[in-house]
Amino acid sequence: MVLCYLNFNLYVVQQANISLLIKLSSFRDLWIFNCTEGCQFNIVTQGFKINHLSKIILTSSHINNISGLLGLLSSLNLIGRTKSLHLYAPVDLMYYLDLGKKYSRTNFNYVIYLHILKTGLIINHYGYRIYAFCTKSGFDFTIIGPEQYGTFFLDKARCNYLAPGPLYGKLKKGMSFLLPDGFIIDGVMLTSPNLLGSHVSCLTSNFYCRRVIENVTNSNLVLLL
Known about the structure:
The chain is an alpha/beta fold. The protein folds into 2 domains: 2-148 and 195-224, Metallo-beta-lactamase, Chain A; 154-190, no CATH class. The protein is built from 8 helices and 13 strands. The chain has helices at 8-13, 39-45, 63-66, 69-78, 92-104, 154-159, 166-172, 210-216; strands spanning 2-5, 20-23, 30-33, 53-57, 85-89, 112-116, 120-125, 128-134, 139-144, 176-178, 184-186, 199-203, 221-224. The strands form 3 sheets. The protein has a 6-stranded mixed β-sheet with strand order 1-2-3-4-5-6, covered by helices on one side. Strands 7-8-9-12-13 form a 5-stranded mixed β-sheet, covered by helices on one side.
């Protein structure tokens, strides 16, 4: 999983007006938190394609977080996008999109799914999970990556006269097999312990409170949005 601030130069000056891009490992899909002014230009500058966007998550309906949204949606329409797009945002965004389309007299040729944010699990995709937590100023988020399988002990498997093949992959996942003679092959004994997935906390405020401390206790990385 690749994390990238799209407007890092602004982040040095102020802790606001921030867009965060997430590139999933082994997948072309891009997810972004907040769509600030110039967001699509920053995406292209970083070497990504805006047509690979699949999810846009808005921490709040503040103008700093949505100022580039209508422009980005219009650009996706102009390049002939047909794949659906998922938006995760407070309920107010529904009215903003309706007024924006009415004012600009624009209709999109692709489907936009609007998911209203609330505390709890909001995304469970490709093994990645994103949890949202309601705050006074918007929403905080926790991103949990998929669990990584442990290292398969190849020498140990050969010592047990196990021939290379699809069986190795299943044993690496911890599966067990019962042979005709009653002997049990336990994949757990042939691999190292699984590694926990990455744990990233995305906060919209740097003020300490009990909820923030509980969220970041087990985090590998803490980011400010």
